[in-house]
Write a structure and sequence with these properties.
Helix content: 10-25%
Shape: globular
Oligomer: single chain
Strand content: 15-25%
Strand order of the largest sheet: 1-7-6-2-5
Order of helices and strands: EHEEEEHEHEH
Radius of gyration: 14 Å
């Protein structure tokens, strides 16, 4: 959700959805499903992933079930602010690999009236908070 002191513009109606859980729990599959539903509804979407995520494909978000959707690899979360133009829904995969400014970036995008869907691990293998995902929740 939103951090204290960050104003949410209710008139614009943006929000952040976080899909989190352990590895192999279907996070990316759920992100792809939600993004496809938005496309079916005629909404313009943009999906981002870390440039370092090259497991299945350099430019597509791919689930373990081999479902995929085109995405834009980015070096840092701040790049999303510049590239999330003229869209209604922003998707972000592998959020745990982005810097902690992802929280502020997601809030800024949502405050523009956009729906933001973020998928990522919330904890590392030792059960400790992982990256910016816990802060987004």
């Amino acid at each position: 959700m939103f951090q204290p002191g960050v104003e949410f513009n209710q008139q614009l109606g943006g929000w952040i959805e976080v899909v989190c859980g352990p590895m192999f729990s279907g996070k990316t599959e759920e992100l792809i499903r939600r993004m496809r539903r938005a496309q079916i509804a005629g909404q313009k979407v943009e999906i981002f992933k870390p440039v370092s995520d090259v497991r299945y494909d350099k430019e597509e978000v791919v689930s373990h079930d081999k479902n995929s959707i085109p995405s834009m690899p980015v070096e840092s979360s701040s790049n999303m602010l510049l590239l999330a133009d003229d869209v209604q829904v922003v998707g972000i995969d592998e959020a745990q690999f982005f810097d902690h400014s992802l929280i502020e970036v997601c809030e800024k995008i949502a405050n523009k009236g956009l729906r933001v869907i973020v998928a990522g691990l919330d904890m590392d293998y030792t059960g400790k908070p992982f990256g910016p995902v816990p802060g987004l929740m």
